[in-house]
Amino acid sequence: MLVTTGIIIINIIVLPCRLLNAGDPSAKVRGDLIIGALFSVHRPPSAGQGALVCGRVREHYGIQRVEAALITLDRINSDNSILP
Question: Superkingdom of this entry's organism (predicted)?
Answer without folding.
Answer: Eukaryota
